[in-house]
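User: tokens in, sequence out, please.
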């Protein structure tokens, strides 16, 4: 008999790992103990070398479904210790913090069964949870993951709950978020004046459903924030929500009772069904069954974002409601998701009622959004259920890195050893509130992991709030600047563990380039150490600077000036018609003189220009709108592409623009435009096809483009677990520190 010390790292806390080990130890008649610590789970056991091997084998093969093992380190102690049995002992507070923070998980089957079982003591209890399900990250103040480090510390367990909590053989053993009708969180319902509805918990849910059926808009507190909910089949209610939220077009997500209801609203293949039902419960972007859908859910777009209920409260509401429910994140435009009544009150006037509860949301986290294209899963927003996440790199980082991300859809990351911890989606840093929320996310990661960086990595753009944060908070630490599109490609290399050189294609909105122009149509040969820009989309002028990002007509006009000079103003087409004569004169001058007209090589902007030229979209009300609308007009029967010029590394799109102007048929123009983009990639890649092809950047959120890309290059590497948009930048920035030396 020997005594062994085993250190296990990974997702091993808050997932029923200790009771699992307890049961294994009992089975193998092993004595010793197990404890949680900030650097993982510690096990000390006394047994024979043979039984140790069997025990370690079972650890892997019988692991609970939510658990994930990164590393197991086993060490034989010099002295043999004798134990009287196997014990789960008090959590150790000390140690380096490396364990993974468990993400929030949707309700499990066992809890759902109890929820609807009239004989169960938690029958109908809207906060039922166990070791296999429920809130985690959203309620954590600190590690290790113990009740006293979560917002459940404000609820004292009743006798019955405590018995479950302390019994290693119970499904609720050390399940931190547990509670019941007696002792756990409770609901409250009030109107937009704050007048509370005095009633039982049951009656509050009944009343909420009645209000929704009447067409009212109800703010409902969920896991990582509030949702604004209304009846998705009620046109008046949905239209009213759009008006009150000043959100004219951007599609709303819809929560459905079950898979059957989802299938009434959308065409769903096996892969999408699996995504809808997975324990992370993301919003899945699907092809809508148009006939069954209210026109205001996703105006002029044949896609719909659906998700299944992920909390017991959602389940209870939807079982009573029995219709699809609009469930959009409650937030003021450009502000982070509302996580308490103080922030929600700013939306007074948008909601009529609030269904609230008293479990504090410590870390706000939005719903995640994914889509399936061909055989790929594309993560559009990585948040609840998926985040925070730890990525194991194929190498050790030479320094402790804080990567502060980009400015839109921002995320942040910390890197140490061979680990990167990426925050959930934080959002666009366009307001004071969102910047404060962003800083809070950095503080949370640093606090939980007891982390201080050796270097801060940031984007090159000086006006990004993230860059300003890096410069303002470096306290003498070295800063390292990484080009935006290089970071996009590095992010995919990290995800796919690709070492060595790759050929990277970054099709993006905008990101500052080395030459001061706004890049976004970049062809890079790169590795972890450096990159070389081999080719790019030839630049054009963004008339009005930042304004051009929201107004496709400005980009199109600029391309028309490039082609025809002042003559362009006399053309008869939708772009020109979208301006007054005075505007045309002004913009011509600004084009001619290059005043407030930065140069850009962005493919995102090229999409906008094409949408404007074809009269599809002149001004956008949400990001990516032009691409989505073009996608609607694509016809897979149409073949061929337009000409473009590729010379000295510059790809000139003007021959294509000219051809589009001459095209009689809109569908043909759109279809050939998409094919032209693929042709552009092909024409450059053919010179470098000995290297792996890696594509990323916001433009690859376009489902059709991804489909065409995968069809043409089946071996392409696309980001799957991390967003192709700027949500993936922080991960790439961390990797850029791989080759930093002192
Ligand atoms: Zn459960
Ligand atoms: Zn209780
Ligand atoms: Fe980007």
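Assistant: Sequence out:
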């Amino acid at each position: 008999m020997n005594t062994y010390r085993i250190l296990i790292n990974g997702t091993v806390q808050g997932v029923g790992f200790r009771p699992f080990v307890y049961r294994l130890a009992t089975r193998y008649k092993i004595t010793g103990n197990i404890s949680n610590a900030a650097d993982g789970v510690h096990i000390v056991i006394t047994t024979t070398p043979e039984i140790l091997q069997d025990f370690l084998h079972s650890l892997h093969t019988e692991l609970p479904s939510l658990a994930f093992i990164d590393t197991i380190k086993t060490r034989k102690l010099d002295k043999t210790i004798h134990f009287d049995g196997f014990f789960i002992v008090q959590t150790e507070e000390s140690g380096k913090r490396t364990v993974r923070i468990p993400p929030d998980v949707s309700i499990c089957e066992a809890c759902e069964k109890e929820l609807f079982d009239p004989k169960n003591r938690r029958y109908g209890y809207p906060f039922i949870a166990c070791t296999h399900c429920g809130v985690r990250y959203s309620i954590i103040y600190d590690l290790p993951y113990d009740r006293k480090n979560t917002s459940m510390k404000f609820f004292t367990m009743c006798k019955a709950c405590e018995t479950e909590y302390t019994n290693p053989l119970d499904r609720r053993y050390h399940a931190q978020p547990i509670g019941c009708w007696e002792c756990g969180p409770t609901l409250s319902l009030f109107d937009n004046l704050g007048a509370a509805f005095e009633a039982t918990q049951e009656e509050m849910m009944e009343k909420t459903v009645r209000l929704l059926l009447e067409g009212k808009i109800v703010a409902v507190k969920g896991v990582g924030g509030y949702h604004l909910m209304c009846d998705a089949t009620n046109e008046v209610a949905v239209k009213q929500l759009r008006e009150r939220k000043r959100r004219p077009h951007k599609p709303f997500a819809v929560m459905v009772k079950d898979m059957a209801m989802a299938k009434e609203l959308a065409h769903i293949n096996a892969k999408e069904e699996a995504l809808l039902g997975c324990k992370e419960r993301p919003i899945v972007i699907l092809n809508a069954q148009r006939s069954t859908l209210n026109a205001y859910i996703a105006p002029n777009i044949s896609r719909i974002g659906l998700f299944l209920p992920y909390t017991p409260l959602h389940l209870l509401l939807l079982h009573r409601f029995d219709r699809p429910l609009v469930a959009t994140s409650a937030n003021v435009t450009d502000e982070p998701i509302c996580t308490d009544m103080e922030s929600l009150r700013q939306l007074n006037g948008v909601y009529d009622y609030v269904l609230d509860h008293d479990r504090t949301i410590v870390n706000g986290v939005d719903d995640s959004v994914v889509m399936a294209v061909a055989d790929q899963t594309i993560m559009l927003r990585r948040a609840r259920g998926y985040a925070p996440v730890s990525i194991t790199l194929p190498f050790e980082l030479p320094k402790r890195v804080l990567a502060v991300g980009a400015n839109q859809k921002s995320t942040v990351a910390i890197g140490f050893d061979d680990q990167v911890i990426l925050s959930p989606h934080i959002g666009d840093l366009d307001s004071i509130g969102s910047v404060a929320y962003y800083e809070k996310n950095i503080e949370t990661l640093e606090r939980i992991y007891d982390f201080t960086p050796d270097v801060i990595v940031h984007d090159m753009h000086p006006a990004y709030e993230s860059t300003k944060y890096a410069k303002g908070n470096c306290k003498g630490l070295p800063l390292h600047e990484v080009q935006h599109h290089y970071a996009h490609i590095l992010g995919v290399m990290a995800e796919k563990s690709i070492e060595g050189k790759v050929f990277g294609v970054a099709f993006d909105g905008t990101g500052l380039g080395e030459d001061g122009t706004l890049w976004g149509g970049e062809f890079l040969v790169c590795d972890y150490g450096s990159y070389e820009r081999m080719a790019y989309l030839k630049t054009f002028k963004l008339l009005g600077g930042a304004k051009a990002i929201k107004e496709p007509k400005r980009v199109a006009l600029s391309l028309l000036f490039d082609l025809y000079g002042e003559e362009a103003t006399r053309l008869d087409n939708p772009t020109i018609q979208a301006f007054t004569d005075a505007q045309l004169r002004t913009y011509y001058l600004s084009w001619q003189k290059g005043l407030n007209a930065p140069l850009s090589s962005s493919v995102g902007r090229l999409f906008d220009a094409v949408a404007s030229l074809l009269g599809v979209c002149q001004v956008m009300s949400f990001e990516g709108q032009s691409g989505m609308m073009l996608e609607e007009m694509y016809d897979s029967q149409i073949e061929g592409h337009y000409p473009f010029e590729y010379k000295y590394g510059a790809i000139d799109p003007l021959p294509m623009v000219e051809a589009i102007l001459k095209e009689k048929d809109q569908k043909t123009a759109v279809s050939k435009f998409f094919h032209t983009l693929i042709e552009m990639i092909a024409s450059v890649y053919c010179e470098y096809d000995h290297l792996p092809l890696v594509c990323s950047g916001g433009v690859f959120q376009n489902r059709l483009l991804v489909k065409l890309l995968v069809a043409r290059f089946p071996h392409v590497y696309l980001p799957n677990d991390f967003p192709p948009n700027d949500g993936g930048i922080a991960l790439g920035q961390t990797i850029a520190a791989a080759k930093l030396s002192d």
